[in-house]
Amino acid sequence: MQQTMVGQVYHHPEGQKKRVNNYSAKLPFLIPVVTIDGLFISFDKTKIKYQFDETIGKFHFYDHLFCVPNYLDKVKIGVTSSFEITHQSVGQPNQEFWGSREKFVEKWGNKLPLDLKPSKIYVPEIKEKPIKNIGKVAIIIPTKGNVEMLFDCVNSFYQHCNSELFDVFIADTGSSETEKEWIKTNILPLGDIKLIEYDYYNFAKINNDVVKHHITNEYEYLLFCNNDIKLLNNVIYGMLKVFKSKPKVGTVGCRLHFEDNTIQHDGVFMMVNKQNQLGLGHIGIGSYFNYSIGQKSVIGSTAALLMIKKHMFEQFGYFNENYTTCFEDVELNLKSIVLNYENIIDSDLVAYHLESQTRGKTEINQKNESLDYSKTLMPFINENLMKIKSKIISQ
Questions:
Q1: Model pTM?
Q2: Is residue 69 located within the same domain as residue 142?
Q3: Residues 244 and 344 in one domain
Q4: Which of 111, 127, 145 is a domain's end point?
Q5: 102-154 confidence digits (pLDDT tens)
Q6: What value, to the nearest 5°, has the Cα angle with vertex 155 and ends 124 and 318?
Q7: 3-class DSSP state for residue 187?
Q8: How many Å apart are CA 189 and CA 206, to the nearest integer?
Q9: Is residue 154 helix, strand or coil?
């Protein structure tokens, strides 16, 4: 449910500490929704088509019985973050709540579920200003086939970013000769792009090899990038600005969206549940608006689009090549924390990540992920637990 909820509400019952429920960021526009909580409703009485249903009950579901018929009859409903609301009591379900719920379902159940996915992504404008003494960025993109998707990825950098700040290194891991010729004919002419050919694929090994043997000290920064990334604004400038404004930054990531505009990634979190089991996940994944605005400190970010200083990557020991499928980026981010650096995500920097087209969830992949987690990542976490446990959320 929380994935489809939006807004912010403060709760301050008498004698208790004030807290806030954040279901979405404070966005500078009205978020379209299907229904809103009756805690606070305002409306233009000249535009609504249905009044409150007085048969449903006294205290519960009157809001949904008001909103749903209006929504279905094309009345636009939205949530604003332009002012704050404090609720001074705690609403809890009672017998009337469940009775009203049953009446609501009887009346409108044939219309449910109602889902209103965002038609577009909030993408702030990133205005570029000169940064003194800034180094160049080497963008590393492992790829195999999917040449048109790769074109969209590379082209998005030249569309949104200053080409004087970066060069692109494409690490081909097994495309056909026809596909490689297509890359040479259609992608390499876009800018200063180098094609490096490999006869195998391993994310950690490929990226490490490119850094060790193809990226000179001309480049101060590395940007690891999947071939299914498509930038939506000036991500490179924004990331460089983070490094210049914060002296102890290890890695920098950005907000990523699936093709249907839902959140794929707004930072990585680690959580321990009541059974003392450790879990990892992407903040906001699958939600519509449950992401942050601006910069925040996180466990780390996915290497689908991750920037780090070249000398730090070398200091951290590169990607751990013992991983076969994933989690090498998680360990890299954790190494940053262990070495007293801060990992930042800037959610004003935005890109698409068409993740399903990069790595299918096959049975073999899932088995390898489980082995990577238990045999390689967990030993690293256990060894460094005292230095990272302050970042772990307790459920």
A1: 0.91
A2: no
A3: yes
A4: 111
A5: 888 988 899 989 888 888 899 999 999 988 888 999 999 999 999 999 999 99
A6: 85
A7: coil
A8: 23
A9: helix
